[in-house]
Amino acid sequence: MLKVKNLNTGYDNVPVIFDVSFEVNEGELVSIVGSNGAGKTTILRAISGLIRPFSGEIEFEGKRIDVMPAHEIVSLGIAHVPEGRHVFSKMSVRDNLLLGAYTIDSEAEIEKILKEVFEIFPRLKEREGQKAETLSGGEQQMLAIARGLMSRPKLLLVDEMSLGLMPILVDKVMEILKEISKRGITVLLVEQKVQEALEMADRAYVLQTGKIIGHGTGSELLTSDLVKKAYMGM
Question: Whose CA is closest to 145, among 168, 169, 129?
């Protein structure tokens, strides 16, 4: 579904990502793990068109997207849940969700998607009329993911969803991502909580200072000496 080939990119002509290549197959939950500052967020921004590659290619369903504007990439079926949640604090939960459906013209279809999203996130249904700023951190993270689902994406990019959450809430949100994957949405998760991300991933890549230094199934990487030494203190 997604192919990233020899990607080099960064900010203001300063490289952050170096010759990165990976792929995501339809129906998979793939994790890119690494410490803070490794370049994980930069990769997602390049995929969703928020920054441009210096060189390399990004393909989605066989089509080059690294030359397309961000709004066209969304219309192809890629949704990006950014780091730090970024919900619209003064707007209601429902209105936040409706903003995620801006690419869909049919009101009946939007109501159908809303119903499906509330099945995954019953807590948001209970809070439907509340302002987003009144939600807990975990609920705001759920809202950010739910808003991403409102465009009915084929591929969901999720950036550091554990950031600022208590461990029990991290587990809850991880379970939600598994449920989303089971419903047929392909997920690419970047995450610095290495063990949790690898435990749930079909496959994963290890990113260090802008370079892929390892890849395999989640279970393979959990038992690898590379990951144990670098990220688990073992």
Answer: 169
pLDDT value, residue 234 = 45
Give the sheet arrangement for strand 14-24, strand by strand: 14-24, 2-11, 55-60, 63-64
As a whole number of angstroms, the longest Cα–Cα distance in the chain is 53
Helix (H, G, I), strand (E, B) or coil at 51: coil
DSSP alpha helix (H) spans, 26-69: 40-47
Domain containing 6 equals 2-231
Burial of 11 (0-12, 13-18, 19+ CB in 10 A): exposed
| pLDDT tens-place string over residues 13-48 | 999 999 999 999 999 999 999 888 889 999 999 999
| Domain CATH code at residue 118 | 3.40.50.300
Q: Give ∠ CA 106-111-117 in degrees, rounded to 5.
A: 125
- Angle at which helix 137-149 crosses helix 93-100, to 10 degrees, equals 30
Token pair for residue 136? 């807990």
Q: Which pLDDT score is estimated for 175? A: 86
pLDDT digits (tens, 9 = 90+) for 106-123: 999 999 999 999 999 999
